[in-house]
Amino acid sequence: MSPKDALDLSRRGLLGGAAAVTAAPAGAQTRAAPAAASAATFPTGATNLSHVSFTVNGERRQLDIDTRTTLLDALREHLHLTGSKKGCDHGQCGACTALVNGRRINTCLSLAVMHEGDEVTTIEGLGKPGDLHPMQAAFVKHDGYQCGYCTPGQICSSVAVLKEIEAGIPSHVSADLNAKPGVTAEEIRERMSGNICRCGAYSNIVEAISEVAGSQA
């Protein structure tokens, strides 16, 4: 065989091998096509809606919402109660605190559909201009806020704190777990530690809570 014939043969082998390699993925794609078509029959972007009914600030409310909607987003985006603020959205700052059945929760960590039949109270439900809740009035009197972003959560949490103490629920700083805790600055600071004030109005907040506690004693 001449060198020229050997060169032509090697070229034909190279081209044939390349064609075989190229054909294999094409066949695989053809075989996979029915599966892809089957997957395409499912609608994209579909949401799972669920019905939830609860009482918010004394008014019965009913919503058809995505099951992934948090209580915070249901309040703000669906019911337009924007007093509860979205801060960290991870349950770390307390700006979204509201009362559910009288107990405080971080609404950003709770799904709305979990609260069927519950009683929800936001800052709007505690008091109104001209008829403030005692805690709201105390915050105003003692300058318990600066920028005000955390204030709704601070006030809701403050109201719950006094109820917890009144119910005899101990905290990590309670000296006697079998005795009713006192309304001390130490107790208040510990119980309010989940509410962050980036402006640093903590001492004024303690004064406001202490005054309300004193008036209720």
Automatic annotation (TrEMBL):
Record-linked InterPro entries: 2Fe-2S-bd, 2Fe-2S-bd_dom_sf, 2Fe-2S_ferredoxin-like_sf, 2Fe-2S_ferredoxin-type, 2Fe2S_fd_BS, Aldehyde_Oxdr_Iron-Sulfur, Beta-grasp_dom_sf, TAT_signal
Metal-binding listed as a keyword: yes
* PROSITE patterns in the cross-refs: 2FE2S_FER_1, 2FE2S_FER_2, TAT
Keyword Metal-binding: yes or no? yes
Which superkingdom heads the taxonomic lineage of this protein's source? Bacteria
- Enumerate the spans annotated as 2Fe-2S ferredoxin-type domain: 50-126
Q: Which residues cross the membrane?
A: none
One GO MF annotation is: carboxylate reductase activity
**Protein name (Swiss-Prot/TrEMBL):** Aldehyde dehydrogenase iron-sulfur subunit PaoA
